[in-house]
Amino acid sequence: MTNVYSFDGILVFGLLFICTCAYLKKVPRLNSWLLSEKKGVWGVFYKAAIIGTRLHIPVAISCLIMAFYIIFLK
């Protein structure tokens, strides 16, 4: 298990958050409900979705590297 309070735990949480928000952006009902705000606390979801869709290749490579690190090196 990855501890949330360690640096690799924070990286895993961030990657999963970005990937989840990018996925939710593709669902029409959730897109209008969750990602409609662009400022404030709810704007974090929108910004993570934008990062996930615009930088999908680096995010996917980062997920693969992190999975390799957690499975084989940790």
TrEMBL record:
Localization, UniProt: Golgi apparatus membrane
PANTHER family per the UniProt record, alphabetical: PROTEIN KISH-B
Topology within the bilayer: Single-pass type I membrane protein
Family: Belongs to the KISH family.
Transmembrane segments: 6-24, 44-72
Role played: Involved in the early part of the secretory pathway.
Record carries keyword Nuclease: no
Primary location group: Golgi
Alphabetical keyword list: Golgi apparatus, Membrane, Signal, Transmembrane, Transmembrane helix
Protein name, UniProt field: Protein kish
